[in-house]
Amino acid sequence: MALYRVLLVDDEEEIREGIIKKIDWESLGYTIAGDAENGLEALEKAEHLHPDVVITDIKMPFMNGLELGERLSVVMPSTKLIIFSGFDDFEYAQKAIKLNVAEYVLKPVNASELMETLKKLKQKLDREFDEKRDVEMLRRNYMDSLPVMREQFLVGLIEGRIPEERLLTQAPLLNIDLTQADHWAVALVRADSAPKDGAALHGEEELIPFSLKCTVEEILGTYCTFTGFLYSDCVAVIAGLKPQTGILQLINGMNEICKSAERVLGVKVMAGVGTVCSNLTEVRHSYREAQNALDYSAAMGAGKAVYIADIEPDTSIKLQFDEHDEREIINGIKMGSEEDIAKQISALFVRFELQLLPFSQYQIYLMEMMTSLLKVMRAYELSTEEIFGDRFNYVNIIASLHSPAEMKQWCTECCIKISTLIKRERMDSTKLLAQNAKRYIEENYHNTELSVESLCSFLHVSPAYFSTVFKRETGMSFVAYLTEVRLQQAINLLNTTSDKTYIIAEKVGYFEPNYFSYVFKKKFGVSPSKYRSK
């Protein structure tokens, strides 16, 4: 096991060095990751050292050990705290207990006593890490979560959010077997949302979907193989079918479910069935058709299943630019390379060329795709002229393309142009974010309450994103940059005014003059007063 990382905090250097030298840290399972001479410095170091244990004195300048513990309990709640105190004071002990301090040790610190404390703490840390790694416990948690994970997976499948590689690898892990058939279809069944008096579950309508699911599991297995799950207020079914008679079997089964559930619940039950697909990744089309069929079933008075092909025999609906296609293309535009975008466009057109559909269907598809591209452009405030040329008119553009090959080429070029502009915009926006942050710091460095949180609130970005961008653009963390600005301003005031040091400290944003002197000396090697007298 890796050694646990320790941050040692004490304002007396001799004490820190003594503790570091007297303890054989490695033999106890620890390593000294760093040390600090006050709570503020410790808090800054903890952000990038990520210690497992912080050993700190209570009485220190600028920020005492309990204040440090309070801050750490918020930002690093799993970090253990050992507190040294030369004060046998009940109030300190009470506060330490409230902070869930691992150990409270009275000074002067005895090396053997500290070693015993560290041994006990290591046992506790080991137990916690062992629990996190406990395979049996993880397995139990996995099994407990399996129903929810299966449901989320199946919802993702019918909504078109599960790529083929994930489908093949994850389905077996979730005990989902959809490989016993060569063809599939989706069906949806739902009860009337407003049951009348006398209904079996009147007043407990939230139980109706569960009752429907039980009816589906009881009946449908005699008609086909299937996987059923709750989806919103419906029960969704992914049925495995035989090529010839499968869809009829599914329709008959759903009809029987409607009748049986209506008898049991005393409410109208409706069902919709989508068309058959030969690839599991395409069941999103069948699902969308089942939704439409369910609406027809409700309009026709419920009580039976409606097969979408009986109502809408035109299967060209499958050439719609749906949510899955839109998500794939937009993700490619935002994050993919030119080669990735070209492959995605080609994959879309290959899929549709195999269906040998009329050219007019391609034109409709292109119009739907263009609508999605325009939404992306609007979100990034991109100019249509820059992408499509002067006098943009999508009707004229579509009319000018005379074959699927021309459409594919045009789409690829447009998507690559949009991608290039978005990436350029993103780079410009991060530079602008850093510039705005630096300007805000320059204007507010004197505010003792200035923090990364207040700055991010002004910029309307999250602290995590800001920290990453700011460090990449400036090469410095927010704290380091703010300190640099404040100290440069302090140098200017020392050189141009006769203000007292404590006045200068306040003017550059330090509420504690002694801490200002500490930071100044750490940076320049001399105190502010000595710097002025040079």
> Could you list the spans in which at least 5 consecutive residues all have pLDDT below 50?
none
- Estimated helix fraction: 55-70%
Strand fraction: 5-15%
The biggest beta sheet is recorded as: 5 strands, parallel
Helices, by number, come to 24
Distance between the termini: 53 Å
Number of strands: 10
Strand order of the largest sheet: 2-1-3-4-5
The structural class is alpha/beta
Note the overall shape. Answer: extended
Mean pLDDT: 83
Roughly how many Å is the radius of gyration? 34 Å
Word description of this protein:
By secondary structure, the chain is an alpha/beta fold. The protein contains 24 helices and ten strands. The strands form two sheets. A five-stranded parallel β-sheet has the order 2-1-3-4-5, sandwiched between helices. It has a five-stranded mixed β-sheet with strand order 7-8-6-9-10, sandwiched between helices. The longest helix has 41 residues, at 404-444. The two termini are 53 Å apart. The model has no long low-confidence stretch (mean pLDDT 83).
